[in-house]
Specification:
Helix content is about 35%, strand content about 35%. By secondary structure, the protein is an alpha+beta fold.
Amino acid sequence: MSTVRVMTEADVTAVSEIRVTGWKAAYAGIVPQSYLDRMTVEADEHRRRRYVTGSDKVTTDLVAVDARGGVVGWACLGPSSTAVGELHALYVQPSLIGTGIGRSLLRAVHGIAAAQGFGSVLLWVLADNARARRFYERAGYAADGAVQADDYDGVSVTEVRYRLTL
C-alpha cells in the first residue's frame, strides 16, 4: 500500500530514477533505443532539481511512498494552455506497475485538480503505449481527437490527447 504526498527536494533523485527507468521500460520499441540509451538519472536529476526549486513553478508534484517512506511513484499536474488541468507526468517504479500506486496518484491528482477549480484534466499519451492508454481509459479518460507528434532522434512519435471531466 502506498500513500501520496507533495514532492520535496529530497525526493528528486528517487523521482528521476523512476522517470528514467519508467521511460526505458514503457517506451522501448516506441521511442528510438538510441534516445533511451542516452537518458541518465543524473541528467534528469539535474534538470528536475532546478525545476523543483524554481520560483516560477506552477505545477504540483506528488509522490507515492511505500510503508518505509521510499518513493515508488510520481505525478505532475499543472495548468494547460486550454485552461484545464493537465497531467504532465505519471510514472510508477516499473517493478510495481499494477499494484495500485498509479491509481492512488491519479486519485490525488484529480482531487487537487478539482480543488484548483479545474473542471477537467487532460493528458498526452504515446499512441503506441497500449498499457498506458488502457490504464487511463479504465480511469474514465477518453481520447478527444487531438494528436501531436514529437521527434526523438529523427523519428516522429505520435501522441494522443485524453480528457476526463471531473
